[in-house]
């Protein structure tokens, strides 16, 4: 038996012999059905093979270590999520790979220690002993820590040596496997890919290739991919561990109720493969608009099994016509790989994708908040918003938002006729009360606890409140005025409650002002006017005086859009989403009333009639 195997086995045997009788009996019992015993059998079983001095190709070892790191990280995650059955099952996979690596390292130790000592057999044996002892003691917290601080860094340092002396490239077998799979199941894509391949080979040989993507090594051994645009170099995957990043991505987007996903953005395919690792029963339709991205993926990531099985359907969609068609049919499980947005050349399509991504991220980030808030909000309402139809129908309404232009005309509300209702958004509620302006309703929709400051100290007010079913629960629990619940379309708990009670559902549009607009439309107002709805950083300001954060940091660097009175104003992507939603909402067939923008500043909102507040108050009320 080789000396390093003997060393490791003796360490373990001595530890067992010297421990207490009680511990020894537990160890023997545990070994019978645990991966530790299997590990030692493998150590003993390969001794003869190792003594034959079999040398393993460096490139192959490099990829084996990549697989090994992935396996180790899987065990670490299982330890930290208390999935100990998975720890034991994956320990066997890890030891299989580890034996292949140790074979190479100890038989070619001089290669790995050319400049400095990377491989020290005694240190490696000691580290493995610590890991196995922790596993033997079922101390899974320690198992995870040791794998992370001892084994992973060691494996990465070995890969660094291989990269230094034997530059690692892509595995030709991966390309061949993918090409064969496409030949069987997607010949149109194969033909485009092979045409691209010929062009790449020819121009690369001539030194004229001007591709925008290239592969780079990472510490984990898996490639990342870099792209380049007018802003510089950017990355599609982690530079440290792309596979670990993909695991995080997949766990975040996986939905146990979904069996089909639409993914825009292929990258190197890691995120797609990890979704299938979580659930091999799902189907993924992946759209990619850049053949250079597809080409690099086919060289680095073996998708052949998934392509043949139909688990992955890959479409080259250069003009985005196919993905738009599919999205018209279903957007429930649409995932955008955000780094891929940067290679979209059409700025209009890129903006649309970015807006969808922002909206989708907001919903995902708010999921727990929504659940938390709605539990209480469903208990504390005095009525449902539908009951207010008689108060709204036939009335002129001013919706007051907190944009920076509000200070230009808000004083005029003091002379409003009785036939005009004032709906204050939560942000501006306190300001209007302090100014002595009569407020008929206040509306709140934000789910975050920080917005409770909008009514803090005003809980005793008797002005009726409209609150969204997912708004911060403190509003409904603490406000003493009459409270009217608003259930929104798109949130399942609200939809179920509304259906049970025969209530109407309301559209949200993403902001408190858009919810207020939908309520006023559905309750049959005579006319609707906005003030303070800049949807822009007018004069580089975020809000009106005395409402919320005043200064808009970085506004000068934001995109500029046409302003109401000429010129341009800076806007955020969220403002653009709200703007587009309002423009679309007022075009719908149920909008029979005029909708005015009396903000007197800010961005142009298509579909709204621009006026002044003074003119609106006079004209709509017969003055």
Key features?
4-stranded parallel beta sheet; 623 residues
Q: Explain this structure to me?
A:
- With 623 residues, this protein is an alpha/beta fold.
- Helices cover 49% and strands 12% of the residues.
- It contains 24 helices and 18 strands.
- The relative contact order is 0.06.
- Residues 46-56 have low confidence and may be disordered.
Mean pLDDT rating: 87
Low-confidence stretches: 46-56
C-alpha-based Rg, rounded = 32 Å
- Strand arrangement within the widest β-sheet reads 8-13-12-11-10-9-14-17-18
Helix content: 40-55%
Query: How much β-strand is present in the residues?
Result: 5-15%
- Per DSSP E runs of 2 or more residues, the count of β-strands stands at 18
Major sheet: size, sense and barrel closure?
Answer: 9 strands, parallel
> DSSP helix count?
24
Shape estimate: elongated
Summarize the structure in short.
With 623 residues, the protein is an alpha/beta fold. Helix 8 (121-136) packs antiparallel against helix 9, helix 12 crosses helix 13 and helix 17 (347-377) crosses helix 23 (573-585).
List the helices and strands and how they pair.
Elements: H1 3-18, H2 21-32, H3 35-45, H4 47-51, H5 58-80, H6 84-107, H7 109-112, H8 121-136, H9 140-165, H10 172-185, H11 187-206, E1 213-216, E2 224-229, E3 232-235, H12 242-253, E4 260-264, H13 270-278, E5 283-288, H14 291-300, H15 304-309, E6 312-316, H16 321-329, E7 334-336, H17 347-377, E8 383-384, H18 389-392, E9 396-400, E10 420-425, H19 426-434, E11 441-444, E12 465-468, H20 473-478, E13 483-486, H21 492-501, H22 512-522, E14 527-531, E15 559-562, E16 568-571, H23 573-585, E17 595-597, E18 609-610, H24 613-619
Parallel strand pairs: 4-5, 4-7, 5-6, 8-13, 9-10, 9-14, 10-11, 11-12, 12-13, 14-17, 17-18
Antiparallel strand pairs: 1-2, 2-3, 15-16
């Amino acid at each position: 038996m080789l000396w390093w195997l003997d060393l490791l086995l003796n360490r373990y045997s001595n530890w067992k012999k010297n421990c207490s009788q009680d511990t020894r009996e537990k160890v023997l019992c545990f070994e019978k059905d645990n991966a530790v015993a299997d590990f030692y059998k493998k150590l003993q079983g390969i001794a003869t093979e190792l003594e034959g001095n079999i040398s393993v190709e460096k490139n192959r070892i490099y990829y084996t270590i990549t697989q090994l790191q992935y396996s180790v990280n899987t065990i670490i995650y299982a330890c930290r999520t208390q999935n100990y059955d998975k720890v034991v099952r994956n320990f066997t996979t890890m030891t299989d790979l580890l034996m292949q690596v140790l074979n190479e390292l100890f038989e070619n130790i001089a290669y790995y220690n050319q400049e400095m000592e990377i491989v020290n057999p005694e240190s490696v044996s000691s580290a493995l002993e610590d890991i196995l002892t922790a596993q033997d003691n079922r101390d899974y917290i320690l198992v995870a820590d040791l794998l992370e601080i001892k084994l992973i860094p060691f494996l990465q340092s070995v890969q660094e040596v291989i990269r230094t002396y034997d530059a690692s490239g892509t595995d030709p077998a991966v390309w061949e496997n993918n090409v064969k799979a496409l030949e069987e199941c997607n010949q149109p894509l194969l033909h485009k890919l092979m045409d691209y391949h010929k062009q790449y080979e020819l121009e690369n040989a001539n030194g004229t290739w001007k591709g925008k993507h290239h592969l780079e090594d990472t510490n984990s051994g898996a490639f990342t991919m870099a792209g380049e645009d007018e802003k510089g170099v950017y990355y599609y995957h982690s530079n440290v561990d792309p596979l670990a990043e993909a695991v995080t991505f997949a766990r975040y987007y996986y939905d146990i109720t979904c069996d089909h996903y639409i993914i825009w953005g292929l990258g190197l395919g890691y995120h797609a493969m990890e979704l299938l690792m979580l659930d091999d029963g799902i189907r993924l339709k992946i759209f990619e608009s850049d053949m250079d991205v597809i080409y690099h993926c086919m060289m680095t990531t073996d998708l052949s099994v998934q392509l043949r099985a139909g688990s992955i359907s890959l479409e080259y969609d250069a003009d985005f016509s196919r993905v738009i068609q599919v999205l018209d049919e279903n957007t429930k499980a649409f995932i955008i790989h955000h780094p891929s947005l940067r290679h979209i050349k059409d700025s209009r399509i890129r903006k649309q994708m970015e807006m969808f991504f922002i909206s989708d991220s907001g919903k995902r980030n708010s999921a727990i908040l929504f659940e938390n808030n709605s539990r209480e909000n469903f208990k504390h309402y005095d009525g449902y918003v539908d009951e207010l139809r008689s108060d709204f129908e036939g009335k002129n309404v001013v919706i007051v938002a907190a944009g920076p232009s509000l200070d230009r005309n808000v004083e005029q509300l003091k002379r409003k006729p009785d036939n005009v209702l004032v709906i204050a958004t939560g942000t501006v509620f306190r300001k209007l009360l302090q100014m002595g302006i009569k407020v008929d309703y206040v509306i709140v929709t934000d789910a975050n606890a920080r917005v409770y400051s909008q009514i803090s100290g005003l809980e005793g007010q008797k002005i009726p409140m409209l609150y969204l079913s997912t708004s911060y629960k403190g509003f409904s629990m603490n406000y003493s005025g009459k409270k009217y619940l608003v259930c929104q379309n798109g949130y399942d708990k609200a939809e179920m409650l509304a259906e049970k009670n025969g209530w109407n559902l309301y559209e949200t549009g993403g902001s408190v002002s858009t919810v207020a607009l939908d309520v006023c439309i559905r309750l049959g107002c005579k006319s609707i006017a906005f003030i303070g709805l800049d949807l822009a950083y007018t004069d580089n300001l975020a809000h009106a005086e005395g409402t919320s954060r005043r200064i808009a940091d970085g506004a000068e660097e934001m995109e500029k859009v046409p302003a109401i009175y000429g010129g341009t104003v800076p806007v955020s992507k969220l403002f653009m989403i709200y703007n587009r939603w309002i423009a679309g909402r007022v075009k719908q067939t149920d909008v029979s009333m005029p909708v005015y923008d009396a903000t007197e500043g800010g961005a142009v909102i298509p579909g709204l009639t621009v006026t002044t507040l003074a003119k609106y108050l006079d004209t709509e009320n017969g003055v």
